[in-house]
């Protein structure tokens, strides 16, 4: 089956990119950027530009848990593309606007009870986000101010540097096996690249969600700081990274990351087909059902 799914036809039509942020954020001056600079973004992604520093803070706000739905992924992609294409910016800080949650990972409702065409379109968007963040020419720093399982962890791992808030609730890891699903090879590759083969082998099989102290020890994050210092630390780290000439840093990043990205780029369609086949299995749909029910019951 030749896959012809694309992100743009459905999702671009749904969105009005770069609409001014509604409500309180509309026209609000960006923090630390002087009077003239305004926040912009889309309903689920708030961008606070600091042109003087060449940095934009991208705040994810898809409440309640910043799950990576198709629409949210699309808005993230549009924001990233816009920032990449604007020479003003040399770095972005990705953080969350949802208290206590960085991102709950992929949106389970995009994978549960959906038809194959939808799953294929969704997976293509997931691939796209990873490739864009992982290979970005910009310096990308994760200011991780909440829990960050599975797809949320992948987003963090795709940054150049990760600062995690020191709160025992803010666990991070690829916990797919706990849901009865399997982290795709490119999730696994990024984890192996970050924490090494043996640690990744254990973490992936056991679905570890590392609390901050363990996360730092294993190297899944680069720094753990008090919660109220996450943003300022991300800013200082950004300044260090921006002190390096862009062309040298970018070429070096590409040198290091391209082989990993190429593994997916060489088989994107096959990866989509594998995902669709896997996620459509009755047994996997049952596992997702059980997990979603558990999430519901947790409340009651
Ligand atoms: C081949 C397949 C490859 C797939 C690769 C990657 C997979 C993933 O990324 S799968 C997603 C993995 N994520 C998780 O396991 C996290 C699940 N969520 C939680 O553990 C908790 O929600 C969380 C700790 C993030 C937050 O806890 P609370 O603050 O207590 O909120 P609730 O649990 O009450 O959740 C609120 C609301 O959101 C719904 N929810 C949570 N996570 C997701 C999600 N990932 N996708 C979709 N929806 C999610 C949750 O069910 C609640 O919904 P309502 O009951 O309708 O309010």
TrEMBL record:
Location, primary (coarse class): mitochondrion
Subcellular location: Mitochondrion matrix
Domain of life: Eukaryota
Keyword RNA-binding on entry: no
EC main group: isomerase
Gene Ontology BP terms: fatty acid beta-oxidation
This protein's pathway: Lipid metabolism; fatty acid beta-oxidation
EC number: 5.3.3.8
Keywords on record: Acetylation, Fatty acid metabolism, Isomerase, Lipid metabolism, Mitochondrion, Transit peptide
Catalytic reaction(s) noted: (2E)-tetradecenoyl-CoA = (3Z)-tetradecenoyl-CoA; (3Z)-dodecenoyl-CoA = (2E)-dodecenoyl-CoA; a (3E)-enoyl-CoA = a 4-saturated (2E)-enoyl-CoA; (3Z)-decenoyl-CoA = (2E)-decenoyl-CoA
CC annotations in GO: mitochondrial matrix
Signal peptide region: none
PROSITE patterns for the chain: ENOYL_COA_HYDRATASE
GO molecular function, one term: delta(3)-delta(2)-enoyl-CoA isomerase activity
Role of this protein: Key enzyme of fatty acid beta-oxidation. Able to isomerize both 3-cis (3Z) and 3-trans (3E) double bonds into the 2-trans (2E) form in a range of enoyl-CoA species, with a preference for (3Z)-enoyl-CoAs over (3E)-enoyl-CoAs. The catalytic efficiency of this enzyme is not affected by the fatty acyl chain length.
Family of the protein in this entry: Belongs to the enoyl-CoA hydratase/isomerase family.
Subunit structure: Homotrimer.
PANTHER family given in the database record: ENOYL-COA DELTA ISOMERASE 1, MITOCHONDRIAL, ENOYL-COA HYDRATASE-RELATED
Identification of the protein by name: Enoyl-CoA delta isomerase 1, mitochondrial
Source organism of the structure: Ursus maritimus (Polar bear)
Gene: ECI1
